[in-house]
Amino acid sequence: MQDNSTTENEYSTETVDYSDLEIMCDKGSNRSFRAWFLPTIYTIICLLALVGNFLVILTYLYFKRLKTMTDVYLLNLAMADLLFAISLPFWAASFMSQWHLGVYPCKAMFTIYKVSFFSGMFLLTCISADRYFSITKAVSAHRCRSSAVFYGQVSSLVTWVMAVIFSVPDMVFSEININGTCIANGNNYEDYRIRMLISQMVLGFILPTVVMGFCYICIIKTLIQAKNFERNKAFKVIIAVVSVFVFSQLPYNVVMGVTTQETTDCNRDKSRLYALDVTRAVAFLRCCINPFLYAFIGVKFRNDLLKLLKDLGCISKSHLMYTHCGKRRSSVGLDTETTTTFSP
């Protein structure tokens, strides 16, 4: 995910020492690239994320189907992604020109980004933990089934509170620098920038990924021993969501780690800035991919979405009946008590 503070100081034209000769490292090509590339990609991501996540939230609210803890988590995940998508037009505008909205909108933009980032990652961690207990501790999970939604709501609230707490530093230190740019570390906070990058990678990527990896390894082991993959196809959608998140976030986190190391090689510095912009754009795809994973993989969600679109007059009843007939054979045997709205 993005942290604008990782790039602004690096994009400035600064004096560095190359073989004891003071020369200028001109990063005008980097600024030109990001001025058209990031706004274009952000606009596409924003539109897809707004449509996809709005449909997820609307489907849940319309059918009132918060039956499981996973449903609660996925609804909150859609809310986090929608919140992030709303901030993207402001990021795009900030890359094209100076920041003209004042310091408080600047702080709000950074806060929204960090809250949505941490809440999204924490919620995916919660989803993997929920699936771990549901499959590997099935008896205990069955006993708690009646209160699962309540526990999901409480843990989701805790997740949002933690995300807000971890976002406080950016809210406090974000400001408009002397170049008229909204950044999170001002002009004199290089040590702060590095600390924030490392904490984001550890708290927002490494530790959650370790937890997810442990949970899903145990889940796969249990399913192999049970030899019952057919019945548990409902969990493939969650594995797909987490896998997409990891593969989209890993390149960006690696590049962020590289940017914490100082360099006096101008070409290398410019290359890593190109890499930072590209991998950031890939990382942002997460907020628009998740809803489409649910729509294309989850049979129950796809059926509910088609019913919603039919009720809204977007598709005809005959098209809905044709879709149901085409999918009925493939969905036989998958509608168990443990199947969620987003099940395949």
UniProtKB/TrEMBL annotation:
Biological process per Gene Ontology, one example term: inflammatory response
Entry GO CC: external side of plasma membrane
Keyword annotations of the record: Cell membrane, G-protein coupled receptor, Glycoprotein, Membrane, Receptor, Transducer, Transmembrane, Transmembrane helix
PANTHER family: C-C CHEMOKINE RECEPTOR TYPE 7, CELL ADHESION MOLECULE
Pfam families found in the cross-reference section: 7tm_1
Transmembrane segments: 36-61, 73-96, 108-127, 148-168, 197-222, 234-252, 281-299
Domain annotation G-protein coupled receptors family 1 profile: ranges: 52-294
Stated name of the protein: Chemokine (C-C motif) receptor 7
GO MF entry, a single one: chemokine (C-C motif) ligand 19 binding
Keyword Membrane: yes
Family: Belongs to the G-protein coupled receptor 1 family.
Lineage, highest ranks first: Eukaryota, Metazoa, Chordata, Craniata, Vertebrata
Main location class: membrane
Membrane topology: Multi-pass membrane protein
SUPFAM superfamilies according to UniProt: Family A G protein-coupled receptor-like
Domain of life: Eukaryota
Subcellular location: Cell membrane
